[in-house]
Amino acid sequence: MHRADRPPSRRAFLDATGVTVAAGLLAGYSGDSARSDRSGDPAPSASATPTPVAPTPVAVTGRYQAGVTLPRSAQPHLLALVADLGATVMPGPLLAELGETIQTLTAGSDPRLLGLSPGDMTVTVGVGPRLVRTAGATLPGAADLPRFSRERVAERERGGDLLIQICAGDALLLPVAAAALLDQAGDRIQERWRQFGRRGAEVPVAEDRSAPRNLLGFIDGIVGPHTTAEQERDLWLADPSAVAGGTLAVLRRMEIDLTRFAALSVAEQEAVFGRRRASGVPLSGGSVDSAPGLSAKTPDGRYLVPVDAHVRRANPTVVGVGHMLRRSYSIDDPAPGLLFISFQNDLRTFTATLTRMDTSDALLPFTTTTATATFLILPGYDARRPLGSTLFG
User: Fold this and answer.
1) Long-range CB contacts for residues 298-301, cutoff 8 Å, separation at least 24
2) Which of 29, 47, 95, 169 is the most exposed place for a label (fewest CB within 10 A)?
């Protein structure tokens, strides 16, 4: 070990600490004394805890439900709760009640919130294919998600009638809000599974946009429909009118083999994704939000972005589909992994992409899917148009 690499001795540490503390005491004494002598009152402590900034509330009602594009940067904590409706339960009245409860929870006026400030909490509700088919067999959202390879999914964790997605800056809000919504629904619904997740540190990827790092250390969710025009094209449903303002969600809970991935060199990890781990820049060059140069080659004829790299196999232009809006969350229970959530206005955007990835994507061998479902995220609602009323009356 070189001398520069040796950790400081205990004596050196104590000596340095003593000097630092002494300097701080002297500076504090002279400064405080001077101010006290002038005013007669002791100066406020320089180490006083700053007042935390309250998170900005998110509008609940409107054309779209909150929790998809609002807030623009997703909150760091999420709870996804999947449930079934009883066989004789009418979805219309239940959804209307849930919509009213969401409004009281996010307004902070529901006593079941136990005095917690709702802050930036959002609650987003979707219905599964079985319920959508009761409203119309050909409606968007009526099709079940097909089975794919690398799945180890118990039947209880495949599909479902109802999705309740709760997001917030304060993790305490998630179970409290979920308990209130389940209390409101009573025995009309039966919970299938739930998953807590959290987002990593946000990294700037454009002038007005950031994205988090995932459990593998890479920036997640760089590509997507970010502008209003892109979202109208690829995200929001426009017709029929019963679903206009809604979107289609796909949930996939995946275990990730962190040990095996971490054993790769950084260069090998970057070849799996097709991006630089530190910056997120494509291996073909440019900036973090540059489109990967899929035709770019080295002087000896090798692709700069490998043929099985994730950014190549999942590239929407190559697949021939629109963009997904992805809001993925890292998890550590029941195992380290990822809760993948994508929003799109055509289920084929997801199914065609994963079908192509299934044939040759260097990332997939590190993953095993353990829960899977798709839901129609209902259109927005307000006092005149209850949640779910455009679909179920």
Assistant:
1) none
2) 47
